Amino acid sequence: MPRTRTVAQATEHDSALARQIGVRIREARKRASLTQQQLAGDRYTKAYVSALETGIARPSMVALSYLAERLSLPPSHFLDERNPTWNRLEVDMLLAAGDWQAAADGYADILDDSPDDQGRAEILRGRAEALARLDRGKETVAAAAEAVRIFGSLGRISDEALARYWLAYGLYLSDQDADARSLLTSLLERVRAGLKVDPDFEMRLLMALAAVASRGSDYAQSLTYLETARGMAEDLDDRRRAHYLFNLAISYRETGDLEAAIRTGGQGLAMLRAAGATFESAQIENDLAMAYLATGNTVRAGELAATARTEFERVGDDRFVAAVLDTEAQVALARGEHDTALSTARRAIELARATGNRAVELTALLTEARALRAGGDRSAAEERYQLAAHLGREGHSAGRLREVLREWAALRAELGDHKGAYDLTSEALSVN
């Protein structure tokens, strides 16, 4: 499924909270004797700071952390922790900033504090999105299904449709492709019949259907969906169009068209750089690095990953640093640099654990296991496969768990443990 990012629909209450954050930013800036331009620094613009201070825009957690640092204050200074509604806003910002694990945990913590059914449904939908980003399919389905039920009972049709999208995403992650396709197709028909949701919702549905078709090896249908979605991207602003191109590149990569993935991803990267969106650019650079790695171009893959890591280290986002370190470990392994691959994968695992990024921890464990196996240390490799399988069984992507189990089974067979290999293969076949 495409990794598109959604923006929660603003309510009057959210707007009031955004205005309060803006007042606190303005007061802190004036105490620090800074102009709006000085506070913006080299990362944002005076206009953006002005929009924050007047409550027109709501900062992401990344932006708030950056501005708080320039004002020598903790981000919590701008968030009233005594008021549960501020906690909700903070979690929403974690989701918008891409801190999926923290957002999922935050939504779980505030779920019982929701004042009414609508608030509960909105929290559940946010949690469903965060869980989907973490590849936790079954939990995504549970949260999204309840959100769908509540929104439906309240007659909130557009909100119900968005929740159904994440329900389909959870079904996809759980390898229930037929159910996911049925939900997505139904949503697409409703949108084309006049259902009003987000401006880019139809495009997101098409890209999701492309991902489902691709996994079913129906590449012709997948590309048809993608090309239809491409025509809709012309109406988006530059930043959203850049994100569309990025997600299109991921879909192309999943269909096996690596040349198109690199070309399209490069276009999106150029647009984000032109817009000054360096953080988002770094995310695309990391995914492009994986696309180049799949083509065997380890030189370009290494360059892109290094650039991405530099940006994430600059802003202090260790969750994304962990992901890029795993990419660099895979690049080193492809080059036959086993020692470098091992040390880099272990750094990725350490950072992933420290930041609660269990999805990256799993992939980095798999990378480490592959490096150990390639280097001849089969006993240590088996230990890492075991740890990776344990994480996978806790609710991450069924596809990733099957990948771990199959590789572990192959290693068991190499060691002469044919019964163990058979047991792991049988488990892989039963994963759903």
Verbal overview:
By secondary structure, the chain is mainly alpha-helical. It has a domain of 98 residues: 434 Repressor (Amino-terminal Domain) (Orthogonal Bundle). It is 77% helix and 0% strand. The protein is built from 22 helices and no strands. It starts with 11 loop residues before the first helix and ends with a helix. About 3% of the residues have low confidence.
List keywords for this structure.
432 residues; mainly alpha; 434 Repressor (Amino-terminal Domain); 22 helices; 77% helix; globular
Tell me briefly what this model is.
With 432 residues, the chain is mainly α. It has 22 helices and no strands. α20 runs antiparallel to α21 (398-414).
| Rg computed from alpha carbons, rounded to a whole number of angstroms | 22 Å
Separation of termini? 17 Å
CATH superfamily of the domain at 1-98: lambda repressor-like DNA-binding domains
Question: What is the percent of helical residues?
Answer: over 70%
Which regions have little confidence, pLDDT < 50, spanning 5+ residues?
Answer: 5-11, 81-86
Compressed to H and E, one letter per element, the order equals: HHHHHHHHHHHHHHHHHHHHHH
Strand content: under 5%
CATH topology of the domain at 1-98: 434 Repressor (Amino-terminal Domain)
Name the shape in a single word: globular
Structural class: mainly alpha
The total beta strand count reads 0
